[in-house]
Specification:
By secondary structure, the protein is α/β, with parallel strands linked by helices. The chain has three domains: 4-85, Arc Repressor Mutant, subunit A; 90-161 and 264-293, 3-Layer(aba) Sandwich (D-Maltodextrin-Binding Protein, domain 2), CATH 3.40.190; 162-262, D-Maltodextrin-Binding Protein, domain 2 (3-Layer(aba) Sandwich), CATH 3.40.190.10. 49% of the residues lie in helices and 20% in strands. The protein has twelve helices and eleven strands. The protein has helices at residues 4-16, 19-26, 30-44, 60-88, 100-116, 128-136, 170-176, 181-184, 197-205, 223-231, 241-250, 278-293; strands at residues 49-52, 55-58, 92-98, 119-125, 142-145, 154-168, 190-191, 218-219, 237-240, 254-255, 263-271. Strands 3, 4, 5, 6, 9, 10 and 11 form a seven-stranded mixed β-sheet that branches. Strands 1-2 form a two-stranded antiparallel sheet. A two-stranded parallel ribbon has the order 7-8. α9 links the parallel β7 and β8. α1 crosses α4 (60-88). The longest helix is centred in the N-terminal third of the chain and has 29 residues, at 60-88. It is elongated. The model has no long low-confidence stretch (mean pLDDT 89).
Length: 301
Protein backbone atom coordinates (compact mmCIF):
# COMPACT_ATOMS: atom_id res chain seq x y z
CA UNK A 1 0.00 0.00 0.00
CA UNK A 2 1.28 3.45 -0.90
CA UNK A 3 2.00 5.41 2.33
CA UNK A 4 0.16 8.60 1.33
CA UNK A 5 0.21 10.32 4.72
CA UNK A 6 3.97 9.84 5.25
CA UNK A 7 4.57 11.00 1.67
CA UNK A 8 2.61 14.19 2.35
CA UNK A 9 4.69 14.76 5.48
CA UNK A 10 7.88 14.11 3.51
CA UNK A 11 6.95 16.69 0.84
CA UNK A 12 6.16 19.29 3.48
CA UNK A 13 9.50 18.68 5.23
CA UNK A 14 11.35 19.01 1.95
CA UNK A 15 9.55 22.23 1.07
CA UNK A 16 9.98 23.88 4.46
CA UNK A 17 13.43 22.47 5.30
CA UNK A 18 12.21 21.77 8.82
CA UNK A 19 10.41 18.85 10.48
CA UNK A 20 8.86 21.13 13.11
CA UNK A 21 7.65 23.64 10.51
CA UNK A 22 6.19 20.84 8.40
CA UNK A 23 4.41 19.38 11.43
CA UNK A 24 2.91 22.78 12.26
CA UNK A 25 1.61 23.22 8.70
CA UNK A 26 0.09 19.75 8.71
CA UNK A 27 -1.43 20.06 12.18
CA UNK A 28 0.47 17.09 13.61
CA UNK A 29 3.13 16.73 16.29
CA UNK A 30 6.85 16.83 15.52
CA UNK A 31 7.34 13.23 16.77
CA UNK A 32 4.58 12.08 14.42
CA UNK A 33 6.27 13.83 11.49
CA UNK A 34 9.61 12.25 12.41
CA UNK A 35 7.93 8.85 12.53
CA UNK A 36 6.55 9.37 9.01
CA UNK A 37 10.02 10.19 7.70
CA UNK A 38 11.58 7.15 9.40
CA UNK A 39 8.88 4.91 7.92
CA UNK A 40 9.72 6.05 4.39
CA UNK A 41 13.45 5.74 5.04
CA UNK A 42 12.94 2.19 6.30
CA UNK A 43 10.88 1.28 3.24
CA UNK A 44 13.31 2.87 0.78
CA UNK A 45 16.43 1.69 2.57
CA UNK A 46 18.11 5.08 2.34
CA UNK A 47 18.11 8.33 4.33
CA UNK A 48 15.96 11.15 2.99
CA UNK A 49 17.39 14.02 5.01
CA UNK A 50 20.55 15.02 6.79
CA UNK A 51 19.98 16.85 10.06
CA UNK A 52 21.72 20.08 11.05
CA UNK A 53 21.19 22.89 13.53
CA UNK A 54 18.94 24.94 11.25
CA UNK A 55 16.75 22.10 10.04
CA UNK A 56 17.21 19.37 7.44
CA UNK A 57 18.72 19.04 3.99
CA UNK A 58 17.27 16.63 1.38
CA UNK A 59 19.48 13.82 0.11
CA UNK A 60 19.60 12.83 -3.59
CA UNK A 61 17.06 10.11 -2.79
CA UNK A 62 14.73 12.75 -1.36
CA UNK A 63 15.03 14.85 -4.49
CA UNK A 64 14.22 11.82 -6.66
CA UNK A 65 11.22 10.94 -4.48
CA UNK A 66 9.90 14.50 -4.53
CA UNK A 67 10.18 14.63 -8.32
CA UNK A 68 8.37 11.29 -8.60
CA UNK A 69 5.40 11.95 -6.31
CA UNK A 70 5.17 15.69 -5.62
CA UNK A 71 3.09 16.80 -8.57
CA UNK A 72 0.78 13.79 -8.42
CA UNK A 73 0.11 14.16 -4.70
CA UNK A 74 -0.53 17.91 -5.01
CA UNK A 75 -2.97 17.17 -7.83
CA UNK A 76 -4.82 14.55 -5.79
CA UNK A 77 -5.20 16.92 -2.86
CA UNK A 78 -6.43 19.76 -5.07
CA UNK A 79 -9.00 17.53 -6.77
CA UNK A 80 -10.17 16.15 -3.46
CA UNK A 81 -10.54 19.69 -2.10
CA UNK A 82 -12.73 20.56 -5.09
CA UNK A 83 -15.00 17.60 -4.35
CA UNK A 84 -15.19 18.62 -0.69
CA UNK A 85 -16.09 22.15 -1.74
CA UNK A 86 -19.04 20.85 -3.74
CA UNK A 87 -20.43 18.92 -0.81
CA UNK A 88 -19.53 21.10 2.14
CA UNK A 89 -19.68 24.59 0.70
CA UNK A 90 -16.88 27.11 0.63
CA UNK A 91 -17.81 29.45 3.47
CA UNK A 92 -14.92 30.97 5.37
CA UNK A 93 -12.02 33.36 4.95
CA UNK A 94 -9.59 33.47 2.03
CA UNK A 95 -6.62 35.83 2.31
CA UNK A 96 -5.35 37.39 -0.91
CA UNK A 97 -2.43 39.75 -1.47
CA UNK A 98 -1.26 41.43 -4.66
CA UNK A 99 -0.19 44.68 -6.32
CA UNK A 100 -2.95 47.27 -5.84
CA UNK A 101 -3.11 48.34 -9.49
CA UNK A 102 -3.67 44.85 -10.88
CA UNK A 103 -6.05 43.82 -8.11
CA UNK A 104 -8.22 46.87 -8.82
CA UNK A 105 -8.05 46.49 -12.59
CA UNK A 106 -8.50 42.75 -13.07
CA UNK A 107 -9.74 40.97 -9.96
CA UNK A 108 -12.97 42.71 -8.93
CA UNK A 109 -15.29 40.40 -10.99
CA UNK A 110 -13.62 37.29 -9.57
CA UNK A 111 -13.68 38.68 -6.04
CA UNK A 112 -17.37 39.47 -6.46
CA UNK A 113 -18.09 35.91 -7.54
CA UNK A 114 -16.16 34.54 -4.58
CA UNK A 115 -18.06 36.74 -2.14
CA UNK A 116 -21.37 35.65 -3.64
CA UNK A 117 -20.37 31.99 -3.17
CA UNK A 118 -19.89 32.50 0.57
CA UNK A 119 -16.18 33.28 0.75
CA UNK A 120 -15.15 36.08 3.11
CA UNK A 121 -12.23 37.98 1.60
CA UNK A 122 -9.30 39.53 3.40
CA UNK A 123 -7.34 41.50 0.80
CA UNK A 124 -3.91 43.00 1.38
CA UNK A 125 -2.02 45.17 -1.08
CA UNK A 126 1.70 45.58 -1.55
CA UNK A 127 4.81 45.11 -3.61
CA UNK A 128 6.98 42.05 -4.13
CA UNK A 129 8.66 42.16 -0.71
CA UNK A 130 5.38 42.38 1.19
CA UNK A 131 3.74 39.71 -0.97
CA UNK A 132 6.46 37.10 -0.52
CA UNK A 133 6.74 37.91 3.19
CA UNK A 134 3.00 37.26 3.61
CA UNK A 135 3.31 33.93 1.78
CA UNK A 136 6.34 32.89 3.83
CA UNK A 137 4.71 33.86 7.13
CA UNK A 138 1.46 32.03 6.39
CA UNK A 139 -0.49 35.28 6.19
CA UNK A 140 -1.78 34.76 2.63
CA UNK A 141 -3.60 31.89 0.93
CA UNK A 142 -3.29 33.31 -2.60
CA UNK A 143 -1.14 36.01 -4.15
CA UNK A 144 -0.50 37.79 -7.42
CA UNK A 145 3.24 37.89 -8.09
CA UNK A 146 5.36 39.27 -10.91
CA UNK A 147 7.71 36.29 -10.83
CA UNK A 148 7.47 32.53 -10.52
CA UNK A 149 8.47 31.61 -6.96
CA UNK A 150 11.68 29.70 -6.28
CA UNK A 151 10.37 28.33 -2.97
CA UNK A 152 9.31 24.68 -3.44
CA UNK A 153 6.61 25.22 -0.81
CA UNK A 154 4.82 27.53 -3.24
CA UNK A 155 2.88 26.64 -6.36
CA UNK A 156 2.20 29.09 -9.18
CA UNK A 157 0.48 29.41 -12.52
CA UNK A 158 0.97 32.15 -15.09
CA UNK A 159 -2.36 33.95 -15.37
CA UNK A 160 -1.73 37.27 -17.12
CA UNK A 161 0.77 39.40 -18.95
CA UNK A 162 1.19 43.15 -18.81
CA UNK A 163 3.00 45.18 -21.46
CA UNK A 164 5.30 47.84 -20.04
CA UNK A 165 5.17 51.23 -21.74
CA UNK A 166 7.51 54.20 -21.29
CA UNK A 167 5.35 57.33 -21.21
CA UNK A 168 5.45 61.06 -20.51
CA UNK A 169 3.18 64.05 -20.98
CA UNK A 170 3.43 65.95 -24.30
CA UNK A 171 4.42 69.04 -22.32
CA UNK A 172 7.33 67.23 -20.63
CA UNK A 173 8.50 65.76 -23.95
CA UNK A 174 8.48 69.18 -25.60
CA UNK A 175 10.26 70.85 -22.69
CA UNK A 176 13.04 68.26 -22.55
CA UNK A 177 13.39 67.43 -26.23
CA UNK A 178 12.99 63.75 -25.40
CA UNK A 179 10.55 62.08 -27.81
CA UNK A 180 12.17 58.67 -27.41
CA UNK A 181 13.31 56.38 -24.63
CA UNK A 182 16.93 56.84 -25.65
CA UNK A 183 16.56 60.57 -24.92
CA UNK A 184 14.36 60.30 -21.83
CA UNK A 185 16.69 57.93 -19.97
CA UNK A 186 19.11 60.79 -19.38
CA UNK A 187 16.43 62.48 -17.23
CA UNK A 188 15.28 61.43 -13.73
CA UNK A 189 12.25 59.13 -13.97
CA UNK A 190 9.20 58.67 -11.77
CA UNK A 191 9.55 55.23 -10.22
CA UNK A 192 7.91 52.69 -7.92
CA UNK A 193 11.02 52.70 -5.72
CA UNK A 194 14.68 53.62 -5.90
CA UNK A 195 15.58 50.27 -7.47
CA UNK A 196 13.62 51.32 -10.59
CA UNK A 197 12.29 47.78 -11.24
CA UNK A 198 9.90 48.36 -14.18
CA UNK A 199 12.09 51.07 -15.68
CA UNK A 200 15.13 48.76 -15.72
CA UNK A 201 13.11 46.10 -17.54
CA UNK A 202 12.13 48.55 -20.29
CA UNK A 203 15.60 50.08 -20.56
CA UNK A 204 17.22 46.63 -20.83
CA UNK A 205 14.67 45.46 -23.42
CA UNK A 206 15.54 48.50 -25.54
CA UNK A 207 19.23 47.54 -25.47
CA UNK A 208 20.39 50.35 -23.16
CA UNK A 209 22.51 49.80 -20.02
CA UNK A 210 20.13 49.84 -17.03
CA UNK A 211 22.84 50.91 -14.58
CA UNK A 212 23.38 54.31 -16.22
CA UNK A 213 20.07 55.77 -15.06
CA UNK A 214 19.89 58.90 -12.87
CA UNK A 215 18.17 58.72 -9.47
CA UNK A 216 14.38 59.08 -9.67
CA UNK A 217 12.70 62.46 -9.51
CA UNK A 218 10.03 60.93 -7.28
CA UNK A 219 9.09 57.48 -5.99
CA UNK A 220 5.68 56.16 -4.97
CA UNK A 221 4.60 52.55 -4.30
CA UNK A 222 1.47 52.99 -6.42
CA UNK A 223 1.63 53.06 -10.21
CA UNK A 224 -1.64 55.00 -10.40
CA UNK A 225 0.02 57.89 -8.59
CA UNK A 226 3.01 57.69 -10.93
CA UNK A 227 0.61 57.91 -13.88
CA UNK A 228 -1.02 61.02 -12.42
CA UNK A 229 2.34 62.65 -11.77
CA UNK A 230 3.46 61.88 -15.32
CA UNK A 231 0.27 63.43 -16.68
CA UNK A 232 1.04 66.54 -14.61
CA UNK A 233 4.43 66.83 -16.32
CA UNK A 234 6.68 65.84 -13.42
CA UNK A 235 8.69 63.36 -15.46
CA UNK A 236 8.63 60.17 -17.49
CA UNK A 237 7.75 56.75 -16.15
CA UNK A 238 6.91 53.15 -17.08
CA UNK A 239 3.36 51.81 -16.70
CA UNK A 240 1.48 48.61 -17.50
CA UNK A 241 -0.59 49.00 -20.65
CA UNK A 242 -3.93 48.88 -18.81
CA UNK A 243 -2.99 51.81 -16.57
CA UNK A 244 -1.77 53.95 -19.46
CA UNK A 245 -4.54 53.15 -21.96
CA UNK A 246 -7.02 55.94 -21.21
CA UNK A 247 -4.34 58.61 -20.79
CA UNK A 248 -2.82 57.64 -24.14
CA UNK A 249 -6.22 57.79 -25.83
CA UNK A 250 -7.01 61.19 -24.34
CA UNK A 251 -3.56 62.57 -25.17
CA UNK A 252 -2.52 63.42 -21.61
CA UNK A 253 0.31 60.88 -21.99
CA UNK A 254 2.40 59.91 -25.01
CA UNK A 255 4.43 56.77 -25.57
CA UNK A 256 8.13 57.40 -25.78
CA UNK A 257 9.51 55.98 -29.00
CA UNK A 258 11.06 52.60 -28.21
CA UNK A 259 11.24 49.04 -29.52
CA UNK A 260 8.42 46.56 -28.89
CA UNK A 261 7.36 46.93 -25.24
CA UNK A 262 8.50 44.05 -23.05
CA UNK A 263 6.03 41.69 -21.41
CA UNK A 264 5.89 41.35 -17.65
CA UNK A 265 4.30 38.02 -16.66
CA UNK A 266 2.01 37.77 -13.64
CA UNK A 267 1.44 34.62 -11.61
CA UNK A 268 -1.26 33.33 -9.30
CA UNK A 269 0.78 31.92 -6.42
CA UNK A 270 -0.21 29.87 -3.37
CA UNK A 271 1.30 27.84 -0.53
CA UNK A 272 0.90 24.25 -1.68
CA UNK A 273 -0.40 23.28 1.74
CA UNK A 274 -3.24 25.82 1.43
CA UNK A 275 -4.91 23.79 -1.33
CA UNK A 276 -5.95 21.23 1.26
CA UNK A 277 -8.63 23.75 2.26
CA UNK A 278 -11.61 23.51 -0.13
CA UNK A 279 -12.41 27.22 -0.15
CA UNK A 280 -8.80 28.11 -1.10
CA UNK A 281 -8.87 25.65 -3.98
CA UNK A 282 -12.24 27.07 -5.02
CA UNK A 283 -10.91 30.64 -4.86
CA UNK A 284 -7.81 29.71 -6.85
CA UNK A 285 -9.91 28.10 -9.56
CA UNK A 286 -12.32 31.05 -9.80
CA UNK A 287 -9.48 33.59 -10.08
CA UNK A 288 -7.63 31.50 -12.66
CA UNK A 289 -10.69 30.81 -14.81
CA UNK A 290 -12.00 34.38 -14.87
CA UNK A 291 -8.59 35.86 -15.61
CA UNK A 292 -8.21 33.42 -18.52
CA UNK A 293 -11.37 34.94 -20.02
CA UNK A 294 -10.08 38.54 -19.87
CA UNK A 295 -8.40 39.84 -22.99
CA UNK A 296 -7.36 43.17 -21.47
CA UNK A 297 -4.80 41.56 -19.18
CA UNK A 298 -2.72 40.49 -22.17
CA UNK A 299 -3.57 43.13 -24.79
CA UNK A 300 -0.93 45.46 -26.14
CA UNK A 301 -1.29 49.04 -27.27
Amino acid sequence: MVPLIPLRTFLEVRRTGSISAAAARLGITQPAASTHIRLLEDQLGRPLFTRHARGVEPTPMAEDLADAVGGALDGIEARYARLRARGAGVEGIVRLIGPPEFVQHALVPALTRLAESGVDLRIALGGAEAIYAALADGQADLAITASAPDDPALGAERIAEERLLAVASPRWIAAHGAPGLADARAHPPLAYDTDLPLIRIVISAAGHPPDALPPPRATAPDLRLLRDMAEAGLGWTVLPHYLAREALRSGTLTRLAAPEPPANPLFLTWPRSALRTPRVTHARDVLRDLLAQRSDTTATL
